[in-house]
Design a protein that fits this description.
Blueprint lengths: L11 H40 L64 H5 L1
Length: 121
């Protein structure tokens, strides 16, 4: 029986089984995340070290230094356009005053997301 147990001594077997069950569940939940994190760190270290190898490394071959992907920049180098405006004008939405207006909301913008065809031109 554990020193800090609040259960009676007759429940020591049940407490042991319950403790092991919770530890197993914790390993099953945390284990894959920890494995992915360790794999990512190991991959970063290997890529950084192999970049520095003379003659066959990335620096010797004129390749760019390994970098983490960016959310704001496309692989081509162009910046992404982030837009929080709605994709289409939803006329079913009501204003807070209950009065509907036929004019468009002044915040409405027609911003087109760039795609690979636009970048090729």
């Amino acid at each position: 029986m554990a020193l800090l147990s609040i259960l009676p001594a007759s429940f020591s077997g049940f407490e042991t089984v319950l403790t092991r069950l919770f530890l197993l569940i914790a390993v099953l939940i945390i284990g894959p995340w920890a494995g992915v994190l360790l794999y990512d760190l190991l991959l970063y270290a290997v890529r950084s070290i192999t970049h520095e190898i003379p003659v066959v490394g990335g620096r010797a071959l004129g390749k760019a230094r390994p970098r983490a992907p960016s959310l704001a920049e496309r692989p081509s180098g162009h910046r992404r356009k982030f837009n929080i405006a709605p994709l289409r004008n939803d006329s079913s939405a009501e204003s807070t005053s209950g009065v509907t207006s036929e004019t468009q909301d002044p915040r409405w913008r027609h911003i087109k997301e760039e795609n690979d065809q636009d970048l090729a031109m």
